[in-house]
Amino acid sequence: MHRGAYALAILATGFMTDPASAYMAYVSNEKDNTMSVVDTATMQVVKTVNVGQRPRGITI
User: Fold this and answer.
1) Whole-number Å distance between alpha carbons of 33 and 12
2) Among 7-11, 16-20, 54-58, whose mean pLDDT is lowest?
3) Rounded Cα gap, residues 36 and 23, in angstroms
4) How far is 56 from 5, CA to CA, in rounded Å?
5) pLDDT at 56
6) What are the CB-based long-range contacts (under 8 Å, 24+) for 51-54?
7) Mean pLDDT computed over every residue of the chain
8) Range with the largest mean pLDDT of 8-12, 34-38, 54-58
9) Per-residue b/e over 31-42, b at no fewer than 16 CB within 10 Å?
10) Which parts of 1-60 fold into alpha helices (H)?
11) Cα distance between residue 15 and residue 47, in whole Å
């Protein structure tokens, strides 16, 4: 449930920027210790990366 809310929040802010720079959204999943890469055109997770304990405040 939380993962969907995080993805929605990230995607919403992505759409407020220049569309050319919003091909991928990067979503930290704090309780899963992962980061999901979401293709904003298809709204599908294309990759999940293990990033260590409690990822948050990630800058890409």
Assistant:
1) 23
2) 16-20
3) 14
4) 15
5) 80
6) 54/30
7) 79
8) 34-38
9) eeebbbebeeee
10) 2-15
11) 20
